[in-house]
Design goal:
The protein is built from eleven helices and 16 strands. The protein has 351 residues and is α/β, with parallel strands linked by helices. The protein folds into two domains: 2-150 and 295-350, Medium-chain alcohol dehydrogenases, catalytic domain (Quinone Oxidoreductase, Chain A, domain 1); 155-292, 3-Layer(aba) Sandwich (Rossmann fold), CATH 3.40.50. Strand 12 (236-241), helix 9 and strand 13 (256-264) form a beta-alpha-beta unit. The structure holds NADPH dihydro-nicotinamide-adenine-dinucleotide phosphate (NDP) and zinc ion. The site of NADPH dihydro-nicotinamide-adenine-dinucleotide phosphate (NDP) has 30 residues, from helix 1 and helix 6.
């Protein structure tokens, strides 16, 4: 079969591989639609998780089951399925401890396009389908379904990590597709004021639709100066980070009230340390919590989040600025994600 792969750090291209084999607790799925992620860009062009050779990329998509193992109960060939980017080993002790995304080892639930071939192949392998797949609701399009793999669960996890409460004033740093879902998640959790940080007009417009009330650009001066001016020097209750770099914790801590929380879902692709400002962190005693997390995966979360879409409480279609048809366009879609033209939020490819 064909797949679009990371050949080595800094290089991606098409390769031929044999179709994955199906163990007793596995499923083989044929993609119906696929989307690239900024994380694929970090992985290939920053070498963020280290060298990988000839590894098929991609962890966002939906598909049709073509084969299941003898022990799989709830899925059969022909079923159309939602596929989470994170597919934990549900019988691991880490999952029992409540951190399924770290099953086996830290980040171990992140298998697609990290420790095994991803979804940008003519077929892909899913471990523990009963625990990881979900049936695709009939009224969700295959394009929208791709946003349930990663953008919705990650963005909403940002709001969970920051523990957004009714009435909170929330700063969302970065409003690409992940940050936009942080805005939507914070809004659904009852945030009052949501200050969104980004520059691309298409993202600013979408952020407004998802519930952002105020906007600023990191290019117009230090974020903390702008946020403190907007909040009469008080800062915000919660900060969600979905963009920027290792130094973004600096303005985030400076914008946060004592006792506040930062939820980070940004993937720090390079460098060694993050920057935390000593004085504004209360000289170590400000009760400003910093939580960073990989999105939780698995079936239950897919089923719950997809209900928000199928019942009309969350419209993910605003994210989809570039729609293409044909498996070969996966390559073009990934390069769009790398180059980030001004009118792009998220590309999606139907097969
Ligand atoms: P995008 O590149 O589309 O968006 C990044 C956003 O950050 C843009 O709004 C951009 O603004 C803004 N930004 C860029 N530089 C700065 C800066 N210096 N200060 C403040 N804001 C800045 O990324 P995605 O939304 O696709 O992904 C966001 C991050 O989430 C990525 O690192 C991705 O790898 C990660 N991720 C994490 C996952 C997890 O499970 N934790 C899963 C999936 C993704 P502008 O408008 O100027 O472009
Ligand atoms: Zn991703």
């Amino acid at each position: 079969m064909k797949g679009f792969a990371m050949l080595k750090i800094g290089e991606a291209g098409w390769i031929e591989k044999s179709r994955p084999s199906c163990g007793p607790m596995d499923a083989i799925v044929r993609p119906l639609a696929l989307a690239p992620c900024t994380s694929d860009v970090h992985t290939v062009w920053e070498g963020a998780v280290g060298e990988r050779s000839n590894m098929i990329l991609g962890h966002e998509g939906c598909g049709e089951v073509v084969e299941v193992g003898a022990l799989v109960k709830d899925f059969k060939p022909g079923d159309r399925v939602l596929v989470p980017a994170i597919t934990p080993d549900w019988n691991s002790v880490q999952a029992q401890a409540g951190f399924s995304m770290h099953s086996g080892v830290m980040l171990g639930g992140w298998k697609f396009s990290n420790t095994k071939d991803g979804v940008f192949g003519e077929f892909f392998h899913v471990n523990d389908p009963d625990g990881n797949l979900a049936h695709l609701p009939k009224n969700i399009s295959v394009e929208d379904a791709c946003m349930l793999s990663d953008m919705v669960p990650t963005g909403f996890h940002g709001a969970e990590l920051a523990d957004v409460q009714y009435g909170d004033e929330v700063l969302v740093i970065g409003i690409g597709p992940v940050g936009l879902m942080c805005v939507a998640g914070a809004n659904l959790r009852g945030a009052s004021r949501i200050i969104a940080v980004g520059t691309r007009k298409v993202c600013v417009d979408a952020a407004r639709l998802y519930g952002a009330t105020d906007f600023l650009s990191y290019k117009d001066g230090p974020i903390e100066e702008q946020v403190l001016a907007m909040t009469k020097g008080q800062g915000v209750d919660k900060v969600i980070i979905a963009g920027g770099d290792n130094d973004t914790f600096d303005p985030a801590v400076k914008c946060l009230k004592a006792g506040g929380r930062i939820g980070n879902v940004n993937y720090l692709g390079s460098g060694t340390f993050v920057k935390i400002p000593r004085a504004e962190w209360g000289v170590g005693m400000g009760h400003k919590t910093i939580a960073g997390g990989l999105m939780p995966g698995g079936r239950l979360r897919m089923e719950k989040l997809s209900r928000l879409v199928s019942l009309g409480k969350l419209d993910v279609s605003h994210l989809l600025t570039h729609k293409m048809k044909g498996f070969e366009n996966v390559e073009k879609a990934l390069f769009l994600m790398k180059d980030k033209p001004a009118d792009l939020i998220k590309p999606v490819v139907t097969i």
